[in-house]
Amino acid sequence: MTSLKPTTESDDASSVGFTAHDHAACVGSALAAAEDRCAQEGLRFTPVRRKVLELLLREHRAIGAYALLDLLREAGFSSQPPVAYRALDFLSEHGFAHKIERLNAFVACAHPGASHTPAFMICRKCDAVAEARSTPAKGTLGAAARAAGFQIERTVVEAEGVCPACAEVP
Amino acid sequence: MTSLKPTTESDDASSVGFTAHDHAACVGSALAAAEDRCAQEGLRFTPVRRKVLELLLREHRAIGAYALLDLLREAGFSSQPPVAYRALDFLSEHGFAHKIERLNAFVACAHPGASHTPAFMICRKCDAVAEARSTPAKGTLGAAARAAGFQIERTVVEAEGVCPACAEVP
DNA sequence: TTCCCACATGTGATTTTATAACATTTCGAG
DNA sequence: CTCGAAATGTTATAAAATCACATGTGGGAA
Description:
The structure is a homodimer.
Chain A: H1 23-41, H2 47-59, H3 65-74, H4 81-93, E1 97-100, E2 105-108, E3 118-123, E4 129-133, H5 140-148, E5 151-162, H6 164-168
Chain A binds a DNA duplex through helix 4.
């Protein structure tokens, strides 16, 4: 069974990254932005891809591929695993979504369009995920890589812990 | 420690794992160190746990739980998944091994005993894995976490790229 | 010593995550 | 319109991880 914790959309406790916001507008503008960028770059923003991104944006948390499939089914789409994985591949490849390796789950990108190296903060209590930018090449890791002659192509940076909202309610 | 393999690189670059070294000695001393620490801390370094750590050390790269099971079987141990996962849980929990989230695989810890926050460099060509120390709380991520009121408990830092040996042979 | 109990292991089944393989459809360039 | 590449539909299976419960084991308390 996939865990879809209820999304109470009234959590106004705010802090950077975990801030409450006008979620409907956020979803709409992100979709519009994605559509624009796909048009500009000649990418095909097909119905499945759009729906998957929309679902990720709506959830606003890490969601597993199979939970996503359930949502796709509800929305009338085909719901075989490859459908979700292909859409997620497309979205990840073009920076509209990211995989959270620690959770084997996916989130919509919080900085669409920006070329960035994402870092994530994952709340182990509510599964909320905040995306920050990271600069791995500038820190200890970058120094180690240069020392070792290792060429970094991609980084996974994920912090697991407790978000401010959950810290208040033990 | 005398080096069996001639190398132009220093063997003691402990933050760098792509260097050649005396592997038999490395395995032996790591096992001895683990045994010592378990004795000191009242941990039970059972045959399965010891064997799993030995196999990880021998492999000296990321290895999946099921590949490990095959090796366990060859060594005469029971080879049902929980056997491997329980041993890996124990080893991870006490810092003798780490999980590479990006690969769903495991490596022996390169800095046994040291309390540390590991960062990994993963060669996408040869699967070699080097472990470096990281200081995520001090970089961009730490700053973002503090700004957000997020309490970091654990971090995953993994860089994927090309190791020096593979870079030379395209 | 014996009993107990927490911890560790053995084992079969199942769940969760991801991909392979191949047929069919769709879209847009020419 | 036609062709070919890209996308999707579908079945099956691989790969990773956990559950559930029985059994063994080892060290401390009575």
